[in-house]
Model the fold of this input.
Amino acid sequence: MKYSLTYILPLALVFFTACNSDPKKEESNQHSVLVFPQGEKITNTNFTGTAYLQMLVDADSLNSVSVGNVTFEPGARTKWHSHPAGQILLVTDGVGYYQEKGQSKRTLRKGDTVKCPPNVPHWHGASVDIAFVQVAITGREKGETVWLEEVTDEEYNR
Ligand code: MN
Done:
């Protein structure tokens, strides 16, 4: 009996340490932390499925780019579109897709970056099962985004 504390304390310490370094637990903790606000549900027709937008920075005479945080629920995506001055995507959470016309679909994960060239039709969105969060930095000095046709289920799943 007199040894019980001698054994229990180190065991408790080992157990506590193991719990705190559990990679699954760390992953779920990271997933629950929003870097930027989710914003409002997008109600225009440029998206398929449910997506949210929080504008972070508006373009002005000093910085000719706008910055927005876009959250796509699983299966949600943009229509095909192009940006006259290009776009940069920074992936902050989840798993998503990016595809340029004529190229194969790329899978994107947290920490990935994409440089969309000017005037190249493309789409981006969430994967089938996992939501996707991206910060979009869009050049504005050469005009507005050109919206094209919907990304069909066949194109999305290809
Ligand atoms: Mn785009």
Summary: Residues 81, 83, 87, 116, 122, 124 surround manganese (II) ion (CB under 6 Å). Residues 34 and 96 are 17 Å apart (CA to CA). The chain has a mean pLDDT of 88. The first strand starts at residue 40 and ends at 41.
